[in-house]
Amino acid sequence: MENRVYGYARVSSKEQNADRQVQALIEYGVDEHNIIVDKKSGRDMKRDGYASLKNFMLRSGDTLVVKELDRLSRSKADIRKELEYFKEHHIRVKILDIPTTLAEFSAEQEWVMDMINTILIEVLGSMAEAERLKIRQRQREGIDSAKQRGVKFGRPNAEKPANWDSVMEKVNRGIIRPVDAMREMGLKKGTYYNLIKRHSEEEKL
């Protein structure tokens, strides 16, 4: 069976565009039909495209090409694990941003390539992980700062309708049922009971 070359591209969300990565893979020589794209965070290894590529498409002797090392993952431990998997299954990994992974070595020189690439991958893997942690820290700091300014996160609390007091009085006196009260006030069941709970908590203050 002929050895094949596959490309893999990944962006973190559906709103992002993978065209830059795909174009780089095509320019390197990867057939467009052999390029798999995922739109999911690099901290999550459960990606449909990557799983299909790894488990069903790539075979011993094939080559996997990615634009950058952190397209595989943003975790250094996961990067190392994936590269070990490919090595054990005799799948060559080429990373366009690490030129030494693109070079062709003779069998006698292969240990040199492995040594150089191991060092580079360790350094760049650490950088990718550090960047991920930095992003998370910035997000956390942004949320904390917003909370200090009084910004509230999550769904805003529903407001009581204008006829709340009069309708709830009828409910409490047994004149109408809760389902009738919801209909009169135009409330959904969840909103109705959330308002009752909030009203009860406010009365305890």
List the helices and strands and how they pair.
Blueprint: E1 5-11, H1 19-28, E2 35-39, H2 48-57, E3 63-66, H3 76-88, E4 92-95, H4 110-148, H5 164-172, H6 178-185, H7 189-204
Parallel strand pairs: 1-2, 1-3, 3-4
Short description:
The protein has 205 residues and is an alpha/beta fold. The chain contains 7 helices and 4 strands.
Describe the structure.
The structure is a single chain. The chain has two domains: 5-134, Rossmann fold (3-Layer(aba) Sandwich); 164-204, no CATH class. Helices cover 51% and strands 10% of the residues. It contains seven helices and four strands. The chain has a four-stranded parallel sheet with strand order 2-1-3-4, sandwiched between helices. Strand 3, helix 3 and strand 4 (92-95) form a beta-alpha-beta unit. Helix 5 (164-172) runs antiparallel to helix 6 (178-185). The radius of gyration is 28 Å and the shape is elongated. The model has no long low-confidence stretch (mean pLDDT 81).
User: How many domains comprise the coordinates?
Assistant: 2
> Which CATH-level-2 architecture of the largest domain?
3-Layer(aba) Sandwich
Question: CATH topology of the largest domain, what is it called?
Answer: Rossmann fold
Broad shape: elongated
Beta-strand level of the residues, as a percent range?
Answer: 5-15%
- Cα gyration radius (Å): 28 Å
Structure classification: alpha/beta
Descriptive tags:
single chain; 205 residues; alpha/beta; Rossmann fold; 2 domains; 4-stranded parallel beta sheet; 7 helices; 51% helix
